[in-house]
């Protein structure tokens, strides 16, 4: 299986800004995905419950947690333009700093 092949699901709450971050990245790359609304109270989203993070992206048989990790994964797995993460190391670390800062606020 090519690394960009496989069904993509995003598990999270549609109104969550971190879930939106992952969905925006998928939309930028024109990747088809299914949004699975997280309902941890009914046991539906076992992967989400076990990871204790929101969102979780499932790509084929792989699960990726945390929205910033998901964005980087999307950018590397679907490398065609437009790029989401800067290619310049200083710009990339600056972008990671600000994304982390906003996440912690």
TrEMBL record:
Q: Where in the cell is it found?
A: Cytoplasm, Cytosol
Show the PROSITE patterns listed in the entry. GST_NTER
Q: Where do the GST N-terminal domain residues begin and end?
A: 6-82
**EC class:** transferase
Q: What is this protein called?
A: Glutathione S-transferase
Under the cellular component aspect of Gene Ontology, which terms does the record hold?
cytosol
Q: Which SUPFAM superfamilies match?
A: Thioredoxin-like (SSF52833)
Q: Which PANTHER family match?
A: GLUTATHIONE S-TRANSFERASE, GST, SUPERFAMILY, GST DOMAIN CONTAINING (PTHR11260), GLUTATHIONE TRANSFERASE (PTHR11260:SF673)
Primary location group = cytoplasm
Tell me what organism the protein belongs to: Gossypium aridum (American cotton)
Q: Which UniProt keywords apply?
A: Cytoplasm, Detoxification, Transferase
Q: What does this protein do?
A: Is involved in the conjugation of reduced glutathione to a wide number of exogenous and endogenous hydrophobic electrophiles.
Instruction: Quote the EC number.
Output: 2.5.1.18
Q: Which Pfam families match?
A: GST_N_3
Task: Identify the stretch annotated as signal peptide in this record.
Answer: none
Record InterPro entries: Glutathione_S-Trfase_N, Omega/Tau-like, Thioredoxin-like_sf
| Highest taxon of source | Eukaryota
Family, as annotated:
Belongs to the GST superfamily. Tau family.
- Molecular function (GO) terms listed? glutathione transferase activity
Chemical reaction(s) catalysed: RX + glutathione = an S-substituted glutathione + a halide anion + H(+)
Give a GO biological-process term.
Answer: toxin catabolic process
